[in-house]
Design goal:
Length: about 160
């Protein structure tokens, strides 16, 4: 006799509704160093998200993540550039475990960048198999003030 599928699984319904909330809000987690600043952000409109239901959906449920990592650099003449890479996680992970997942990729990217030009790094984690373009990622990092800190450091 085969196992009968449970018609109503509270856990599955909760996970589906949380993923729907995240998709409609274009939610992502963005982190910029220095200073170590981490926020929930709408990656499409570059605005901070302060909603408790979105925070619960991001933090309490494991997701497949697409992670975009960047290292921010500035040449001595003042021109700015970034080195970036994007990858997807193999399994489902909680937000608390994301930094462990991306440690190797971050170390590889830092090793590829010029240490004399590097002034910071950051990442954007989208809880979906959504790929970000370089322009979208740069808009998110700009909204978090990455390039303004570089200009302030140059003038100081």
């Amino acid at each position: 006799m085969s196992k009968v599928r449970k018609r109503y699984s509270a856990r599955a319904v909760l996970a589906r509704s949380c993923r729907a909330i995240l998709k409609t809000n274009h939610a992502a987690i963005a982190n910029v160093q220095p200073p170590d600043r981490q926020i929930m952000i709408d990656w499409k409109h570059c605005k901070q998200i302060r909603s408790a239901p979105v925070a619960d959906a991001l933090c309490d449920i494991a997701h497949h993540w697409t992670i975009y990592i960047s290292v921010f650099c500035q040449k001595p003449d003042g021109s700015q550039y970034s080195k970036s890479m994007e990858f997807s996680t193999d399994g489902m992970h909680l937000v608390a475990n994301l930094e462990q997942v991306m440690m190797d990729a971050h170390a590889e990217l830092v090793a590829q960048s010029n240490a004399n030009h590097r002034f910071g790094s950051g990442w954007i984690a989208v809880p979906d198999k959504t790929s970000l373009t370089e322009d979208q990622a740069n808009r998110v990092f700009s909204a978090m003030g990455v390039w303004q800190r570089a200009e302030a450091a140059l003038s100081a």
